[in-house]
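HOLO CASE FILE
Compound: zinc ion
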Amino acid sequence: MLILGIESSCDDTSVALLDCSQNGCFVIKQTTASQIGIHKKYGGVVPELAGRAHAEKIIVLLEKILKNQPHPDVIAITSGPGLITGLLVGVESARALSYIKKIPLVAVNHIAGHIHSVQISPRDQKPNKIIYPALSLVVSGGHTELIYIPKQGRYQKLGATLDDAAGECFDKTAQLINLPYPGGPRISSLAKNGNARAIDFPRPMLNQDNYNFSFSGLKTSALYYRQKNPQFNPADFCASLQQAIIDVLVGKTIKAVRQYRPKSLLVVGGVSANPLLRQTIQKQLRQFNLQTNCFLPAKKYCMDNASMIAVAGYYQAKNKRFTPWRKLKADPGWAIA
Ligand code: KG4
Ligand code: ZN
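Model generated. Tokens follow.
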């Protein structure tokens, strides 16, 4: 099944063409226009500017991806959650294409897309086979959630952040020390030369008996530390902050693994590109002797991309969960569970 994926929920306009079958989902082509250059000077995504940039790029990208390719069998489109300004551009383009070319549509939840990102295969690689039940830690600029997946396509939210997302905490604290947006990759690279025990930042909610998170207090502690210590060491600051975030993410995830005993753990979203998070979670699974296979997306597919939307769309299409173009709507608050 040839799937055209379209993603425009935040600051990446991305389209991809995937060849999906029971043997796996293989990327034929993906092309993405990042808006980082536009939002950088504001320290975060500006919705109005994001919508305009998506509108400028989407047709160009669709034209590029569909050139000299056979007709897709299905269009998989992110219809939520996300910024309404971006979602509308993707959704309206998908509706128009579906109507004109008579291609069926599937409406994909952006979080389900991230969860399926571990199943994207480059041409020369054997696809990952997820065994259920699974558990997913979704960590990005907009989300921090622990989701239990008893079987393919069924989602049960165990907990989520009560305020800022983990990626947002990276981005906002990076701003405090004048690092450009997005701050996560900058903090993780500066942290390599720092001492993670230099500053004792709090580990919010780590010892609470639930699966929720909170990162706004950590951000405030970082601000106070910065104000009280004008001569601070940036590498130590980054290493200590990163360690605090990772301790909370890994601590809560391992606790959920020990309680729910999933066969697979899927760590996904932009923050899953963080090397310390990747290493620590795998190390702790081994240390506790938990018989859970950990799956991580290829680095290229941690951030928002259209291939992950195409993979999630493939599973929906297989189950005939289509949405007629007349009924498709952007849904900025679409909760996965
Ligand atoms: O999934 P994504 O592209 O967009 C959302 O759906 O939010 O995630 C972007 C987030 C940003 O907050 C960025 O700082 C964070 O992922 N990020 C990282 C790293 N790479 C990206 N955070 C920590 N360490 C990284 N290496
Ligand atoms: Zn995302």
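CASE NOTES: Residues 2-126+301-318 form a domain with the Nucleotidyltransferase; domain 5 fold (CATH 3.30.420.40). The radius of gyration is 20 Å.
CLOSED: yes
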